[in-house]
Amino acid sequence: MAEYSLAATLGIVLLVCATLPAQEVPVAPEDFVIMPWGGTPADPAVLEGIAECGFNLAGFVAPEGLDAVQAAGLKALVSDGLCHVGNAEAELDDAEITRRVEEVVAKVKGHPAVFGYYLRDEPGAQPFPGLGRWAAAFAEADPQGLPYINLFPNYASAAQLGAATYDEYLERFVDTVKPRFISYDHYALMDDGSLRGGYFSNLESVRRAALANDLPFWNIVLSNAHFHYAEPTEGGLRFQAYTTLAYGARGISYFTYFAPHIGNYRLAPIDQFGHRTATWDMLRSVNLQIQKLVPTYVTLKSLNVFHHPDVPEGCRGLDTSVHLTALSGGDLMAGEFEGPEGEPYVLVVNKDLHRSTNFGLTPKAAGAISVVSAYTGHVTPFAGEQVWLAAGQGMLLRLGG
Question: Which of 77, 113, 263, 362 has the highest count of CB atoms within 10 angstroms of its CB?
Answer without folding.
Answer: 77
